Amino acid sequence: MNFHFNEEEQEILDMLHDYAVKEVAPRAHEIDEEEKFPMEARNGLAEMGMMGMYFPEEYGGAGLSYLSYIAVCEELAVHCATTSVVLSAHESLCSWPIYKYGTEEQKKKYLTALASGEKLGAFGLTEPGAGTDAAMQKTVAKDEGDHWVLNGSKVFITNAQYADIFVVFAMVYRPDYKENPYTNHDISAFIIEKGFEGFSVQGHEMKMGIRGSSTCSLYFDNCIVPKENLLGQQGKGFKVAMTTLDDHLDILLGAGKFLQKLPCLRRILLLKLQPHGGDGCFDLVRPERVIVKHVLILRIHARFERLLLRTQRLHQRAVSLLWDGMRSRERVGKCGQLAKDQAQRLVPRFDAPEIQQQNRKPQNDAQRRRIPYRRQRQVIQRK
After folding, report:
1. How far apart (Å, rounded) are the C-alpha atoms in residues 32 and 121?
2. In this structure, which of 2, 29, 141, 286 has its CB flanked by the most CB atoms within 10 Å?
3. What letter does residue 229 receive in the DSSP assignment?
4. 160 pLDDT band (50/70/90 cuts)?
């Protein structure tokens, strides 16, 4: 399988790399520390045409491959995890279901605005009592003839405070719901605009990581939704939600998000190696440029980069399987799990035995004689 980009795609990725280094990375600490939404980066990505990369040009997109889009998310994740999440939630969780299931009128009205970067999107499925178990949600949509009326709430919605268009899921009301409880076959998807009557965004969740990403709650109090804003067929909302999550969320938040940890991992490795001759071993802009004084440093760095490259290839393999229509969760899951396993192997490399041995300062006779750890306590107690 060929994972090389064509000339046009490579130029775009190089342009994005320069932009991320100059504009995104310097603000990353401020964004996370102050929980500040990356509006400058969002506007910059829109100007570069990154807000609808793999959608057709007729709908305002760039018409590039899905693999290019993943590469963009990876590049942004290396420099600022928040910016990457904002982009991926916008394109994968909001724009894609409209492109996949929307009518031609919906695509022209909503997808064009989303793909061009004019408007920002969000995805509303999770509720206080319903996460991945969509059948437990309490948000209800009642058919009132020429419009729908939504009542309920959603929580933990990414991009909520700054989004203009939302893909929201609700149970279609049935009079006999008490005798026959709602099931997945009662779920329908709707396109909600920010200014709809009865719709509001409230609260702000404080998170441990990716703090600049706006995570809020959605409230529907007799929210009026036009009849034509039903996304897909009535009662097929569960399929819309699951295909969106299966095709995108598993990749973006599973195998791919290990790249958000790379700056931290590289800095940890740098701190581990500094006492052994490292002169600022890693250039985070071009990590292949390494200054070494000791063979050990070069060896550990080679292990790190080899595992990183292997993980990226596995990630791209999983992406390609999905994009080529091979929807076997088993095959895609294996690639994703292997990628995550490789990412987990990166951390133990920082505590390689040869580094630990050089960095350890003897504290007692047991350590000086290199007595195994399980016997050190006995030696100390005898003294």
Report:
1. 21
2. 141
3. G
4. very high
